[in-house]
Amino acid sequence: MGFVSFLPIYLQIVEILFIPTISLLVHWLEERVGFKADFKISFHPGKEIRSILPAGDTSQFIPSKEADIVILEEPEHLNWYHHGRRWTDKFNHFVGVVHTNYLEYIKREKHGALQAFLVKHINSWVTRAYCDKVLRLSAATQDLPKSVICNVHGVNPKFLKVGERVAEERERGQQAFPKGAYFLGKMVWAKGYRELIDLLSKHKNDLEGFKLDVYGNGEDAHEVQSSAKKLDLNLNFLKGRDHADDSLHGYKVFINPSVSDVLCTATAEALAMGKFVICADHPSNEFFRSFPNCLTYKSSEDFVAKVREALDNEPQPLTAEQRYNLSWEAATQRFMEYSELDRILNSSETNNRKSSKTKRNIMKSVSVPNLNEMVDGGLAFAHFCLTGSEILRLATGAIPGTQDFSKQHREDLRLLPPHVENPIYGW
Question: What is the largest CA-CA distance in the chain?
Answer without folding.
Answer: 74
